[in-house]
Amino acid sequence: MIDGNTKVCGLIGNPVEHTLSPLIHNTLAKRLGHHLVYVPFLVEDGAVKSAVDGAFALNVLGLNVTVPYKGKVMENLVQIDDLAEQIGAVNTLVRCGSGFKGYNTDMPGLCRALTREGIMLKEQEVILLGAGGAARAVAFMCASQKVKKVYLLNRSVDKAKAVAEEVNRKSGRECICPMALKDHGKVPDGKFLAIQATSVGLYPNEKDVIIEDGAFYEKIHTGYDLVYKPGTTRFMELVKSHGGEAYNGLKMLLYQGIIAYELWNGISVSEEMALQVYEMLEREIYHEG
Ligand code: NAP
Residue of the nearest CA to atom 46 in ligand 1? Predict the structure, then answer.
């Protein structure tokens, strides 16, 4: 029941209609017995500052930030966490003394998702597909988690080079090696963890896949697709049909939300609770049961 003690959290972005975050946070609040509601707020271009200031004035506990404001919102915060600063993107605002502090929970979310699947990044050789916002953040995460090497493949090779240069410089390690996507055959022989961070294969274009060539998939022991709709992408199918393990990005979505909820409420959410929320997400997205 909403009453005088109910805390408010929410999401700012444009569009926000299809977000799954209310399901994550309102389920957590209900199951944990917290007086908290989570609401999506559509914010028009040019209104980010007034939205953040207004939310603070209204005693909003915390906000998520989605496309297209993850970079823009950084101008309106009193503090920014080091990882978010390095990545250059904030997706979670936490109320502190005089304003909001910005965090990035997307990457810790991916890290927790990988760890829960038993995938360790340290000393791994990684193929990272894409050089957009998500891939850039994954590249930072790989550098900070001490992977051995990342082959960063993108259709526009200039973008791959720019991301590699920035991550190598900021992390002080020459671990990211940029390549053109069409040169995927030049990735050296070996067995790799491949992280698919392009939008290729995303519903409703689920017949598409970033690389068709079977020889490429022979080099992959584990494939992690950031796309989660459809639940099994063609990238995942190809990884599996060449003997690898494959996962979609739904657990990344889950854990970025859980980490935000933990930051807002100063708690840690049990794995059992996380899996209950995961099952709700699966039912909602894939209409199971
Ligand atoms: P973005 O910034 O728009 O980047 C898109 C990337 O996809 C670029 O590298 C782009 O290459 C590549 N691309 C698009 N169409 C292509 C095509 N036809 N052929 C080859 N490459 C193509 O998007 P983003 O924010 O990084 O998101 C990427 C994906 O990750 C999306 O599907 C998103 O839903 C998913 N994601 C999932 C989560 C999660 O929680 N699971 C979180 C964030 C993102 P060019 O640079 O050459 O254009």
Answer: 156
Decide if 226 contacts 249 (C-beta within 8 A). Answer: yes
What sections of 145-226 are H helices per DSSP? 157-171, 214-217
Distance CA 41, CA 27 (A): 18
Its pTM stands at: 0.95
Measured in whole angstroms, the distance separating CA 113 from the mean position of its chain's CA atoms is 10
The predicted-structure confidence for 82-99, as pLDDT tens digits, reads as follows 999 999 999 999 999 999
For the ranges 131-140, 149-158, 176-185, which has the lowest average pLDDT?
Answer: 131-140
pLDDT band of residue 71 (cuts 50, 70, 90) is very high
Q: What 3-state class would DSSP assign to 77?
A: coil
Phi, psi (rounded to 5 degrees) for 126: -120, 140
Alpha carbons 91 and 108: distance in angstroms, whole number = 12
List the beta bridge partners of residue 7.
Answer: 36
The pLDDT tens digits of the residues spanning 163-178 come to 999 999 999 999 999 9
Rounded distance, CA 279 to CA 23, Å?
11
- Per-residue pLDDT, 287: 83
Q: What CA–CA distance (Å, rounded) separates 223 from 241?
A: 12
Cβ–Cβ under 8 Å, residues 28 and 261: yes
Which residues have CB under 6 Å of ligand 1?
Answer: 106, 130-135, 154-156, 159, 197-200, 202, 210, 226-228, 249, 252-253, 256
Is residue 70 annotated as part of the catalytic site, yes or no? yes
